[in-house]
Amino acid sequence: MRSVILFLLVLLFVMPIALLAQQQDTTRSEVQDDIEDAIENFDSGDTDFDSEQMTQFLQELAENPININNAGINKLLQIPGLNLKLARNIVEYRFGVKPFETIEELDEVSGIGRVTLEQVRPYVTVGSGLELGKALYTNPRYWTSDGEFQMFSRFQRDQQEGAGYQKPPQEGGYIGSPVKYYQRMGYQSDHLSINLTQEKDPGEELVGPFQFDHRTWHVALENNGNLQILVGGDYSLAFGQGLVLWSGAAFGKGSNVVGAVSRNGRGIKPYTSAQETNYYRGGAVTYGGKLQFTGFYSNRKRSASEISPDTTRFPGSDGYHRTENEFLQKDNLQQTLYGGHVELELPFGIIGATGYQTIFDRYIAASNQTYAQYDFEGTSNYAYGLDYTFLAGPAIVFGEIAQSKNGGYGLITGVESILGGDTDITLAYRKYQKEFQSILGNGFGEVSGQPKK
Question: Could you give the number of structural domains in the chain?
């Protein structure tokens, strides 16, 4: 299996080089065609017209395109296809709406349609690298484009109080009120996301307006050129088919047999939910285009049942801290996570690789019950795997193979296809060894959760 993984990782790095060379040749050909068309379109009919001079001018302009994010009106008028009115509209758009992120956004400028856009495309640029970053990131309109602030607040209380409210806290009763309170405040634009979510479950204590039992937050930059996403704070991770790393909702076996087996990894997502366990806290980033690299680091506290001062069970998922005992076990386990994902988009599909290491500051002991004899025990674990989604005519072939620290492996592969106007088919094969310990995964199985035999 390690040989297969090494071969595929090499493939991930070799393929982009060939694709880049092919793309450069195609671009040169398109520019040459545009120049030839331009000579025909802009020939004034003058017998003294110097086609060689025009060719040289257009070639130089194509090699040194004009930056529409900083060029003045006189500079813009050098571009074939633009007149004074269109040049003014470009300047007004970048100052009144936002800077241009792509050349295609010229289509949003008043008076510029698809024909004009294709005509000027070889001779314009939005800048690149630091030049583009300066034009965009220092402009407040860039960050607030299509921005919206939202605030939700929900108050809920059951009419009939449970048994936990009938006993004093020292006898195992609940320490807080029966009120459930949830609030979320956030700002979302095309490139910026800020959020704060707070929640108090029934029976939990609410000390003050900013001292809820559960709180998540994040600041995220999204869709900034090749910087696909950068998150500071809380986030979720979902890659491949979920055998290695998948936090958040996923379908298990059910009545929806078509579309539930195959997964589409969401990658990094800023976390806004009130669910108290399916997230990580730290930083994560995805960078690239067709070839993307993801890195993440998390260091957060979890709640687990204590067995001894240095030993706990695996952290729970309910998030309740209603009794004195539950409250004492709150945030009693530190979990550190780091790892990455690499993904390559090919003409016929997507291939990716994921790996992580997680470390606990206390020993995790499994239950003595028979059903738990292969559950994870220890202070650290890692898992890694390869995933793929390919197009094969009308069919989609998908799968992932993964291995955990103890040598156990998991495999899922399948195919989805349309057989007719009203008929779809899904075929899948999965094999999760009983030793496979993907404690942060959520692969397709009998129930949602860790992929187990």
Answer: 2
